[in-house]
Amino acid sequence: MGPASSEARADRADDVLALARLAAEPESVRTILAWLTRRTGGLAALIGPTGTVLATPDPDPGPDTLVTAVSAAASAAVELRRRGAPSAVFGGEGGRAVHLVRLGHGDAAGGDEPPYLAVVGPDDPRCGVLLADAARTLALCWRLEEAERARRRVESAEAHSREAALHLLMVGSVPAAQRIAGALGPALPALARVYVIECPVRRRREIAARIDRVARGRAWIVPCPVRSNHLIALVPPGPKGEGAGEGELERERADGLARLIVQRVPECRIGTSAEHPLRDTAAGYEQAIHALAVARGAPLRYAGFGRHTDTTALVSPEGRLWAQELLGPCLRYVPPRRADPGPQELLGTLGSWLSFGGAANRHLKIHRNTLAARIRLISDLLGLDIGRSLAGQSTAWLALRLHSVPPSTAETPAVPAPARASAPASLDALLSSPAAELWARAQFGPLDEAGPAAVPETVRTWLRADARLPAAATALGISLPGARKRLARAEEVLGRSLLRAPSAKYELWLALRASGSL
What we know:
Layout: H1 3-23, H2 28-40, E1 43-47, E2 53-55, H3 64-83, E3 87-91, E4 97-102, E5 116-120, H4 128-170, H5 174-184, E6 191-198, H6 204-214, E7 220-223, E8 230-235, H7 246-264, E9 269-277, H8 281-295, E10 302-304, H9 317-331, H10 343-356, H11 360-364, H12 368-382, H13 390-404, H14 407-410, H15 417-421, H16 427-431, H17 434-450, H18 454-464, H19 469-476, H20 480-494, H21 505-514
Parallel strand pairs: 9-10
Antiparallel strand pairs: 1-2, 1-5, 3-4, 4-5, 6-8, 6-9, 7-8
Helix pairs in contact: 1-4, 2-4, 4-5, 9-13, 10-12, 10-13, 13-21, 17-21, 18-19, 18-20, 19-20
């Protein structure tokens, strides 16, 4: 055995060790192709059996000579597949040989034919052993990367399906959401609390898995489509107890789960809603967002929604008729083209806009220009400025709320027929009822009682300025950070979100109008 043979074996051993190290690198396929390009002096590429270029050392081949080399490798791979041979050397353009080796003999991940390792124009025409060794390592790396891509596709499909089910729940389409959830698992609970978990963006998937374990597989978890650092979870109640205090027991269970989550995942902040049926998921989500605003400043890093200040006091037959009259142009709208949004889609857009503002395009999966065009159309139909005016937004928000109330609830107590036939009440008439006045005082009561007076006055000034913080700060003669700090204090007192959507600004503006303080 001569020195040349021993040297060749040593070189091959070094190459195999180098390939093994490269296989552990991120993007190992591309890394190995780059190493082969340097090692052989030719261009290395991974070519599919139909001539598709699957991978190169550089995503952009660059000069025309490299593009020509890749094209020659693709043509050679198609010819090798036609011949049914595992490897071959073809004469390329300009005398540049194309070396090809098939990666494996069976089907690759996903059931496709295995691709080919191609090296165009190597310096050493006798590089077959190196390519055979590289093909074995590259085949494993390729299968792993294909499996990872398949996993991500499945994960993405599941996330989009869960997001679709959540969207259906938000607009009240419970049966359709249940069908989707039934296929994905777990099934949606009939009653649930909504948890909104704020967490680091890069750890959202990991934290979702940990929350699922903590909740023992009972939670239905969805990555928020609007905020990349939020998770939304529907958590069913625990087993029912007996006797009085059942509500308190359920609240303790909810707090216990939130406490366990923040203990195991300290980066989280959690807001939880009251218990709701599925048809009221949108209301539960708003409650959880309000609770999250409190949780951000709470030592325990979680908070439950504890204030019941919804618009039930404004529900009446007159209010429902007013809402139907106001939304009538949208409800009767006939789109000029079949592809244009119809009445229900416009109302869905309005609800998303009022909840998420400019981020509604991510919620609805439409372009921001499409969203802007729909908002202009809805403003024209309703005769309200819902783009920039808090008055128009608050009016539309109340109309949507009253319109969504089931008639059996809205029409109690009964109203005589002549009263039903009269013209719908105005907004001011709705807000002047004794029940509405009590509701309005309840909105600002905690602020007025907690003091100092600067905090409630800041909230009122902010509402009069269309919820624009710079304008409010100027009107108060204080700095922008100072105004923001006062509103953050108001969030703690009210237990409601003001600065982040969904915001309580619509209810507070309506309360301010009901009290005659605008």
